[in-house]
Amino acid sequence: MLFLACSNSKRLADGESLFIGSKVHIKDFQGKKSERKLMQNDLAAQVRPRPNKTTLGMRLKLAIYNFAGNPRKEKGFRNWLRTKAGEPPVLGSSVRTEANKALALNYLENRGYFTAKVGAHLEVNKKKKSTLIMDVTAGNQYTLESVRFRNDSSQIAHDIDSSFAESLLQPGAPYNLSLIKAERTRIDRMLKEKGYFYFTPEYILIVADTGRGDNKIRATVQLKHKEIPTEAYTKYSINDIYIFANYRLQSQRQDTNMADRVQVDDYYVVDPKHKFKPQIFSQAMIFEKGDLYSLDDQNKSLSRLVNMGTFKFVKNRFEPVQDSLLDVFYYLTPFPKKSLRFEIGALTQNDNRAGTRGTISWKHRNTFKGAEEMLFRINGGVEAQYSGEQKRPNIYNLGAEFNLSFPRFVIPFINVQTQSQYLPRTLIKLKYNYEFESRLLRINSYTASYGYDWKEGPRKEHQLFPFNFTYVKTDTLGQNVNRLLYGNLLFDGIIVGPTYEFTYNSQIGTQRKHAIYFDGLIDLSGNILGLAQKADYATNPRELFGQPYAQYIKAVPDFRYYFHPSKATTLAVRLLAGMGIPYGNSAQLPNIKQFWAGGNSDLRGFPSRLAGPGTFDASEPNEDSTKYIQTLGDIKLEGNIELRQNLYKFLNGALFVDAGNIWLYRDNAAFPGGKFTNNFYKEFNANMGAGLRFDFSILVLRLDLGIPIRKAWLPEDERWVFNKINFSDKDWRRQNLILNIAIGYPF
User: Fold this and answer.
1) pLDDT band of 489, cuts 50, 70, 90
2) What mean pLDDT do residues 544-568 have?
3) Can you give the residue ranges of every domain in the chain?
4) 2-52+89-137 and 143-233 share one fold
5) Which CATH number is 2-52+89-137 given?
6) Crossing angle of helices 155-162 and 177-192, rounded to 10°
7) For residues 733 and 710, what is the distance between their CA atoms, to the nearest angstrom?
8) Top-level CATH class of 237-334?
9) 653: which residues sit within 8 A by CB, 6+ positions away?
């Protein structure tokens, strides 16, 4: 703080000043206060040069620049500190008043303030800091009195006129140059959907007549007939479609070498080595012979070919033939058919556990010549506790996984075709996992799944698995080993039933000021079977293949909101509600389906998976001095809020608050106070904290320090623990400061 408190302007030359920004005063403005504020911000953003960057109100990079001083060498730490980490001062002498006035007037005129006036001067205070003061007299904003299209005898003019009811320019709207450009783009895209392949927005002229008076504009949209070439008037249809399935970028012969072409439906497939079944392209393509050219169909066809996952490069071109026909050529360069991948990683939990994991993956593309993708993966890892009062067993894990995906819906006796830009996928998954907790547990699990993954668009995705089958076999190797309880982790039996998941993510594409993310999961097991057998875990437990099976309904909605007031600042909010209802053949959810609380992406001020359930205190030993490895619940409620701020290039900071808990659906004598009741709102745990994130693009390393501020297991009038925070107390720090080290953002 002392370093940053040093004046950033004291080293400036005599008569010089540090430019710190602008202040915009708007007079004679008739709009709302919110519109005035928006205009002030926009006008301030026009000012050049931009002042030095600030972080939480401090010019950190400028302070580093000044601190480094003048380096004596061209290389070295001091030179790096000044030229890379630092930033030179933006001087008041570099501010061009007249140029900034012109920028402001241009902005105002583009938004309909044609009579606006701008005055500007540079104001320097006693601390040698300068501000550009801009006095703006906005005047009245011109609005559109009428908007019409100048029709003529041409077909293209008739097509524009027929869609003019959808125009973005409406009478009564303020004049806005950006909206006029958007209208030209709208007309162009509309014409592209009607076959006008060679048309461009530059062939459209929008004339704004301000001679009407009363601050009104008569807008006329018309075609620049003198500039439009003959081909731009023509509607083109698709003629022959050629697909080069094994195109090599370095080859120049394949454009015309079509001797080995094979016709499938309306397409010619050129694949001399017969690497692909020609029918797969018929399923992927949207274009068909005889269709009018459509930009939307062109983009969808390219996207579907890319989403097959088999081709490294996809491009196309159009070639006019005869008067109004286009031949279409697609050039597809496949990925290598086989690939081998090795991965090694490290992990840490916030309860003094760390470990490593490794994976070997073998991928086979185009397995059956239908753009299928087969993946075989072997993974293993170990996790151990390196310190702490409570010693937990080492965990060893070994697994194998087989995945096979088809770029289409594979449904018996039904042929399903989609028109989305994304191809659907049919997924077959087989998985085996072995987990060994030293001297405690040995768990074998087997999973088989069959389902579908498809997208409506870039932001909406669905996953439906009508068939899921999991068998878990757990062997105990002793009881109360090292005085640990693990009974809540045991499950022997079968989980069988469908799952459905829907994801919506508005963050896809360009960054928006407001963005949301939603993920909803529905998970069912044993429902029809349990009802048919009239299963009851207490009086009539039933089995499948000689093993008990789980029966439950589970739903998990996860909602997130992101607010970006600037490029460097983000406010992120998450609300998660998980509800599992065990019934019939189950007293509780299987442990692998239950919820947990506490950890580096959850309640970051509490030990990993040891918060809750309810008012149960997992940190205190039971009467026989035993402790739980982890605690789980059937119900979970959680809320998080996090303020993220870029500090320096790859370094980001964060302040956060987390609150939530888990509960049991039914009473359990081993977890007194753990059942969900009407008093659940009094039983939330909460923490606050701060963190650093090192964002290296391909990897985000996260360090979060959390402090509990509310403990649900304490007596009701003592649960808020602000008054017990004591950083000078060694025991308090050991019990309450939780350091989380993780990869990626928590949400």
Assistant:
1) low
2) 93
3) 2-52+89-137, 143-233, 237-334, 338-453, 479-743
4) yes
5) 3.10.20
6) 120
7) 16
8) alpha beta
9) 644, 645, 647, 690, 691, 692, 693
Which tokens belong to 235? 């509607």
Pairing of strands 216-223, 143-149: parallel
DSSP-derived 3-state class of residue 224: coil
Q: Which of 685, 693, 684 is nearest to 746 (CA)?
A: 693
Give the pLDDT band of residue 386 (cuts 50, 70, 90): confident
Q: 232 with 203: CB under 8 angstroms?
A: yes
Each residue of 660-690: pLDDT tens digit? 999 999 998 888 999 999 999 999 999 999 9
Q: What is the CATH number of domain 143-233?
A: 3.10.20.310
Q: For residues 84 and 746, give the distance between their C-alpha atoms in angstroms, rounded to a whole number.
A: 30
Three-state SS letters, 365-387: ECCCCCCCEEEEEEEEEEEEECC
Directed axis angle between helix 33-46 and helix 97-110, to 10°?
A: 140
Residue of 707, 731, 734 whose CA lies nearest to 721? 707
What pLDDT was estimated at residue 482? 46
Q: Measure the CA–CA gap between 215 and 335, rounded to whole angstroms.
A: 61
Helix axes of 295-307 and 177-192: crossing angle, nearest 10 degrees? 80
DSSP three-state, residue 280 = helix
What pLDDT does 481 receive? 44
CATH architecture observed for domain 479-743: Beta Barrel (2.40)
What separation, in Å, do the N-terminal and C-terminal C-alpha atoms of the chain show? Answer: 31
pLDDT surpasses 60 at 484: no
The mean pLDDT value for 540-561 works out to 94
CB neighbourhood size of 86 (10 A): 17
Q: Which two tokens stand for residue 683?
A: 């039983």
pLDDT in tens, 58-73: 888 888 888 888 877 7
Cis preceding linkage at 49, omega within 30: yes
Residue 321 contacts residue 220 (beta carbons within 8 Å): no
Tell me the mean pLDDT in the region 238-253.
81
**Can you tell me the distance from the alpha carbon of 690 to that of 478, in angstroms, rounded to the nearest whole number?**
41
